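Before the break, one more example. Copy the sequence into your notebook; we will annotate it together after we see the structure.
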Amino acid sequence: MEDQRNAMSSPDGVKAGPGDSSPDVPTVLVRDRHGRQLLCFLEQLIPLDGHDYALLTPVDTPVCLFRLDDEADPEPIDTIEASEPILSVADVVLQEHDLTLVRSAVTLTVSGELDEPEPEELDEDDEADDDTETYELLVSFLVDDQDYGLYIPLDPFFVVARMDGGDAVLVEGEEFERVQPRIEAELDEREGSL
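Here is what the structure looks like once it is written out:
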């Protein structure tokens, strides 16, 4: 599984998250260089350098895998193979909650009906340091005497893709590094003109 450095945090003025998009919002199927797919809502279209770049949010809920340790902060696992035994155990645990783990492009996702976080829990998280990303534990499980957890990022999770005809291609590596600040600047400018 690729790491999640190809995803953007919430740019100013763009608010979306799992389930925030209305049914009228178009969906786009994004492919990464390995052929994995991720179904996303199309949030914004930004023309740059003769290409249309799309700012997208996953239809299913993105999740992050962490290694848990009682004596230290949870440690994110950025890179994991789709066939990793940890994910097989996560599959079984999620099925007990009528959820399905999807090995998507960019990130792992969970499909199924999730409980919404309690508003008072979100208020407590807002008081935390704004520079740190906040997560909510979805499930935890044990594999080979090691605890793991799947966490839902509470900050909106955005994906950048380049529209190529009718296809959406995940923007990765150097291209992502080059266009990300320009996309954020364009979004800031759009927000300022509203």
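The chain is about 20% helix and 40% strand. Residues 7-59+156-192 form one domain. Try to locate both features in your own notes.
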